[in-house]
């Protein structure tokens, strides 16, 4: 399969009016004193008044559709400080989660699912757990075949879109990097299995990333993770698909399963409206246009590590047999509660 990235910008004209003189997909750039008729062509260009739903439909929706077919996916937002990255990602999260849970309900007759959510911040090359309090126990290790394994973080089982959104809302209050100085990664892991069949459980991941600002008002120290992310996009845009330098930063190590040509990818670039930002906007457009050269070849992911749905099924069987053999009322009530909690977590589970 050959897919093209979405490179999306909010654009303005010389009078700081968003979008009004910009053709749908081409942005002429003035550089210094010299008018340089550089044009960039993108898959979609949105004016600032575009709704979150329109931006989602035109960008992340296709990545979510691929994710629901079983592919890993990455949606990320790149741009200078105060250009609307966090606002865009927040709105995209709502639509992503709604679509995932609509899909789960539509497949209630045949499929059961476990959906888990991790929300992490990468700040100065440290990882912060934004859902739980497990930052100290998070580790990234490499297995024998070069896969980075992220462990020790909270991976919360999610019961509904609203449940996920309240976890994200609470997580946002814990973010320590202000003014675009950190990256946030929302990782949705979906395990699915066909009901009443012995077919294997499939695991896919979707990462939604609010990258640190590409340019800030104060001169920032170079962000190692953003640099490494840009480097991998550069390599992919030159159609290099092996020996990608994931080890260069914490962000790229975490994103290894989704920042790859075998996963679906949607890149959203945001530009600030002021004419003073035109230099930064030009840099962003150059990045977006480089990223547009990336070609993807989707393939179903191979999961490394344990499958939680299998662990839950074993646990459920053990609880059911303990309830069967228990003759203490107190114990039976406790077991009943534990069984009910576990049945809630495995979505669409048949009674
Ligand atoms: N399309 C838009 N129209 C109007 N205002 C917007 C738009 N996008 C963002 N804003 C406003 O601009 C401000 C900055 O937005 P946001 O925090 O999303 O930017 P950011 O790129 O994540 O910034 P930083 O990198 O500094 O964290 C916010 O007050 C937001 O409400």
UniProtKB/TrEMBL annotation:
Kinesin motor domain mapped to chain residues: 1-294
Coiled-coil residues: none
Keyword Coiled coil: yes
Keyword Iron: no
Alphabetical list of SUPFAM superfamilies matching this protein: P-loop containing nucleoside triphosphate hydrolases
GO molecular function: ATP binding; microtubule binding; microtubule motor activity
Protein name as catalogued: Kinesin
Record organism: Thraustotheca clavata
């Amino acid at each position: 399969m050959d897919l093209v990235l979405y490179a999306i910008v909010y654009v303005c004209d010389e009078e700081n009016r968003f979008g009004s003189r910009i053709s749908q997909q081409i942005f002429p750039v003035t550089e210094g004193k010299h008018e340089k008729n550089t044009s960039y062509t993108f898959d979609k260009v949105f004016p600032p008044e575009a709704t979150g739903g329109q931006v989602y439909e035109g960008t992340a929706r296709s990545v979510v559709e691929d994710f629901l077919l079983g592919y890993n996916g990455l949606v990320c937002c790149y741009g200078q400080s105060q250009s609307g990255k966090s606002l865009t990602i927040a709105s995209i999260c709502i639509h992503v989660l709604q679509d995932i849970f609509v899909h789960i309900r539509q497949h209630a007759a045949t499929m059961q699912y476990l959906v888990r959510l991790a929300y992490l911040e990468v700040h100065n090359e440290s990882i912060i757990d934004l859902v739980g309090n497990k930052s100290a126990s998070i580790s990234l290790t490499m297995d024998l075949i070069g896969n980075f394994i992220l462990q020790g973080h909270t991976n919360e089982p999610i019961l509904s879109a609203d449940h996920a959104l309240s976890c994200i809302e609470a997580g946002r209050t814990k973010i320590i990097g202000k003014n675009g100085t950190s990256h946030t990664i929302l990782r949705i892991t979906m395990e699915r299995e066909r009901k009443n069949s012995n077919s294997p459980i499939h695991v896919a991941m979707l990462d939604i990333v609010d990258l640190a600002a590409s340019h800030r008002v104060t001169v920032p120290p170079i962000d190692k993770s953003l640099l490494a992310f840009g480097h991998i996009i550069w390599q992919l845009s030159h159609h290099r698909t092996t020996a990608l330098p994931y080890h260069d930063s914490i962000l790229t190590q975490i994103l290894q399963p989704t920042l790859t040509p075998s996963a679906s990818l949607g890149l959203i670039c945001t530009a600030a409206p002021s004419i003073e930002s035109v230099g930064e906007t030009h840099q962003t457009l150059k990045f977006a246009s480089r990223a547009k050269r990336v070609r993807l070849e989707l393939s179903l992911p191979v999961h490394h590590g344990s499958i939680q749905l299998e662990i839950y099924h074993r646990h459920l069987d053990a609880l059911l047999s303990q309830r069967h053999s228990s003759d203490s009322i107190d114990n039976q009530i406790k077991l009943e509660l534990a069984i009910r909690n576990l049945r809630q977590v495995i979505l669409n589970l048949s009674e």
